[in-house]
Structures are given as C-alpha cells and as structure tokens.
Amino acid sequence: MNTIHHKLCMKTMQIISELLLQSRLNIERAAEATELHPNWTTMETEKKTSEQMTDTDLSEQIKKVTKDSHVRAENTELMLSFQRGRVTLQQYKLLLCSLYEIYQALEEELDRNSNHPGVAPIYFPAELARLEAIEKDLEYFYGQDWRQKIVVSAATKRYSHRLRQIGKENPEFLVAHAYTRYLGDLSGGQVLSRIAQKSMGLKGSEGLSFFAFPGVTSPNLFKQLYRSRMNSVELTEEERNGVLEEAVRAFELNIQVFDDLQKMLNVTDNKSQNRSLTHSTPVQTLQVKTTPLLRMLLGLLVAVATVSVGLYAF
C-alpha cells in the first residue's frame, strides 16, 4: 500500500514539474514575441476578432471570390513541379527573376503609399518585405552582375505595370496584391523551401532567402493579425468591389506569369535539343574511287538491269 502511495506521489510531482516547465516556456516565448514585434502585444485581442470573422469581412470575401483562381494557379505546370518535388534550377531562377520585378513594383508602391488609409493597416515592411531576400538569391545564382543577366517575361512586365498603375490611381487596391502575394508566400514558404532545396540539391539555405521570414516568429498568428488589419480598412461599397475585382486580377496575373515562364523554359529546352541534333556526328558516306574500266562495267550492269525490268513489266 505504501509503495502504491509513493508511486502516486512521485507521478503527481512529475506532472506538476512538467506543467511548471511548460508554463515557463510559454512565458518566455510570449516575452520573445513581444520583443521581436511591438505590435504583438495586441495580438490576442485581434486574434479573438479574427475568430469571429463573417462573410462581410474583406479577407473572407477575397478568399471566396478567388477560390477558383486559386485552384487554377496551383495547377499550373510550374506550381505542379513544386508540389511534385521536381522543380529544376532553371525553373527556380526564372521564377526569382519575375518575383524580383513584381516585388520591386509592389514594395515601392506600398512604401510610397504607406500613409494611405487603405494601405497603412497592412503595411509591415520589417516583417514581410521580400526584395532584399530576392536580390540575395539572384546574386547567389547569377553572380554580382545579376542585374545584367536576369530575364523577365512579358506577363511579368504587365503585372509590374498594373501594380504601378494602381499605386498612382487606386492605392487601396494594393491590399489585394499584398494579401495574395505575401500571405501565399508566408503560408507555403517553409514547405516550398525544403522542396526546392531537395530538388535542386542545394546545401544549406543559400539561394532560398526568399522563403525565409525572420521577422515573423509565428506565421499562423501573424496571418491572423494581417487579416484582422485588412478587415479594419474602411472602404466604400464601390472601393470594396474594386478591391475584390483586383484580387481576382492578381491571381490571373500570377497565372499568366507562371504560364509565360513555362513557355520560356520549353523554348529553351527545344533550342538545346536542336543544338544537340545540329552538332551530332554526321553520317559518313562510302566513297569509292572509280576507274574508266569500272565505270564502263557499272554502265553495262545498269543497262542490263533496265532491260530486265522492262521485260518483267510486260
């Protein structure tokens, strides 16, 4: 009986120790998050708000109207390569070139309109900015003169032009593009990074800075904060409809970029195959040195063969 009592006491003490340790870890993590992100002191309040989201919230409306486009984007050949773990170095390098052009336009317009009421609530440059990370990756793959080497597709240029256009004419539309790009990259960043690293045989994290968000300690909590801030943006009915249309456009522009990149890759592959065929070993023909006597004998044989064919025909 005493033995059983002793075991129960020991087990109880162990459970209490584990609970105290877990409680201490939670407190330390909370303190660390507060130091890294001053806005996270209000995270829990905004998290409760995000849990009560309804169909009238901007984030939910964007999610709803872009549902079909989202599926189409995931099923482009380029994105399927990532999902299947078969992304090539050339695919990734071309993707980085396009992302550089897109994020350069997006982040310059966000910076320029950072005080606009439709942009300020979702302006998180320290946590989300991608341009510097992409530049680092491009230098790793192309060298220090990467700016002279990168290639940008026509679809990428259209996307960039659209971002600069709305930055000047309708800054509130930028929220649709920021939401589509940043939260998409943040959601799949870690998984895609591992896939790219394994597929391309990269060592360490070099060349994969784009997928890293060092300013975000908890992607899920940050996405909740971001959606809450989105929903706080005050828009007229006309402006809201415009943002929803722009969200669909953002997905369509991304799909066009993915398709264009794959076409560029296909053209490159075809050229490589043609060069391979052109430079293949030519077929050698047999050359026989002839003499007058040999030519006479060959002529006689041809004449006999011709007569024989003529007789057979009749």
Name the beta content range.
Answer: under 5%
SS elements, strand count: 0
Quaternary state, please?
A: single chain
CATH architecture of the domain at 55-265: Up-down Bundle
Q: Spans with pLDDT under 50 lasting ≥5 residues? A: 17-51, 276-290, 296-314
Subcellular location: Endoplasmic reticulum
Family: Belongs to the heme oxygenase family.
Pfam family, one: Heme_oxygenase
EC number: 1.14.14.18
Question: How does this model look, in words?
Answer:
With 314 residues, this protein is mainly alpha-helical. The protein has a domain at 55-265: Heme oxygenase-like (Heme Oxygenase, Chain A), CATH 1.20.910. 73% of the residues lie in helices and 0% in strands. It is globular. Mean pLDDT is 79; it is low at 17-51, 276-290 and 296-314. Keywords: Endoplasmic reticulum, Heme, Iron, Membrane, Metal-binding, Oxidoreductase, Transmembrane, Transmembrane helix. This is heme oxygenase (biliverdin-producing). The chain crosses the membrane at residues 293-313. InterPro entries: Haem_Oase, Haem_Oase-like, Haem_Oase-like_multi-hlx, Haem_oxygenase_CS.
